[in-house]
Amino acid sequence: MRRKPFMLSWERFSRNLSIRQKMIVSLALCVIIPIILLGIITTTRVLRLSEQNQYEVQINQLTKSGKDIESLYENIIQEAATLAGDGAVKAIVAGDASVMDYKNAAKRMLDASERIDYCSAIALSKGGEVLFQRGRLYMDEREDARYTARIEDNRTPYLWAAEHPVTFKRGINITNMNQISYYTTIMKELTLQNEGVLSIHLSALDFIRQFVPYQDDDMMENVFVFDRDGNTLVSNTKNEEAERLCWQEFENEQNRAEAGYFPVKTGSGVYIVLYTKCGSSGWYLFQMEKKISLYSTQILFIVIAVLLCVVFGIVYGMIQNRTIIKPLHHLSKRIDAVKSGVLEKKDYEVAQDEIGNVEKGFEDMVVHIDHLINQVYVQTIKTQDAEREMLLTKMNPHFLYNSLDSIHWLAIRNKDYEVSEQLEALADVYRHILKFGEGMITVRDEMEFIDNYLFLLEFQVGDRIEFIRNIPEELHDCLIPKLIIQPLLENTVQHGLKDVSGDGRVKLRMRRRGDMLIISVLDNGAGCDAEQVMRTIKEKDGREAFALRNIDERIRLRCQDGYGLKIYSRRGWGTIVTVTVKWEAKNNENGGRRR
Fold first, then answer.
1. What is the pTM of this model?
2. Helix (H), strand (E), coil (C) string for 192-209
């Protein structure tokens, strides 16, 4: 597909730009110009915002508050019905309650008061006199007769009392607190005659505080709750004119919805009233706030935001030029110098970031390349010398092995069979050590070598040390690194059991655990400081514990982390040395080595 002339021209143009110029062009095309265009489009869009969008979030929040009021309403109705039908409550009102009735009624009324939000008290009354009550507060001994009389005269089975003062006692203090109250009848069974009144009182202050958006005096908004007849149940203001105007305008609204808003004009200005219906209760929650024109402030904000973005874009370009482009330009010059053959490290200050790491790594690489060139030259000379020396010394091990074999047969001819057996075992040990090119051998081969070694060792230690071997048959074909067990046995005899005169024991044990083969050498010797020995092993240049260090390093190089040598010991108790290697069988199903 042929590329358009514009694309070809752009590629030629960008190919000839430096990285600094590319950054400036990209910043202008991808940041500054789009931000300016976005600011213009956003400003135009903001000017066309409707009041519906302006107050949508507030209406949603108001709707949530309306649902909370509905839930509270239904909770109170349900709890009141449950308590009014409770046998203990009816017994108290009837005047024939027992101690257990009072106890049960107290528990149920207290539980109900805790389940009802903002509940101050729940009371049982008859003839206006409080018979029994429970809750956070304790009210006066008499109820408000304006409400209880309507219940007791059977004019209504229940009613809601708008915000009104209720007298509470706190010790010797008596205070009046505004409450929203719910009254319902307690009927006698069978006859269904009224026997008393159950009242639930809610703190008006706590109730309305949940629905006031702002508490600041400058931002304070009027919040009202009306019943279905337009009576004010509770509000956070004493402005009766505002309450009256809200309900009048609400009744005049055409196409009235479950939630919405409308403007109200008062002597102090234009207000916006947001409202929502509180579900099945028929109540309405109103929020009245001053209408604020946001157009001028929004335009100014967008203009300032665009200018700030432009300034930040320029500052961003300057920072990128200093922290990225300049170091890359300098690194490009250094690469050209190295390509010309100048392998000399330059010391200069670099940043502590990724580019700085690249610069430091490049200078270290220059030094390393120069070192490798010199090292290869020297190594070539050393290799030639080593090959010559190896040819001269290759005959020595075979000469020693052949000499041992000759002495072995000489001992047999002289009927010195004990010496013959030791020479034969020593020759086998030496032959095992001289097997070049075998880094991994089977457990079976290694144990043949260990048997010869222990045979010779028993002539030195006598019967004061007992050697025990516990190796399952299925592990004999497992591959392990060569010569890792003998140093452990030698170390145990030389150090752990050096001063043991009798009853010394050394146990060699192997176990498989998943993909690991665990080799353990246990003794009942003097023990040691295991932590100190492990620290010695980890010292790369240390001269002590060389054999153990060699075993640990060989295993870690082959098997990586998680494998190696560990020591567990305690003074006077003995020592356990474990070597963990990867499980490797000699042959898998396909005849190859399995790792």
1. 0.45
2. CCEEEEEEEEEEHHHHHH
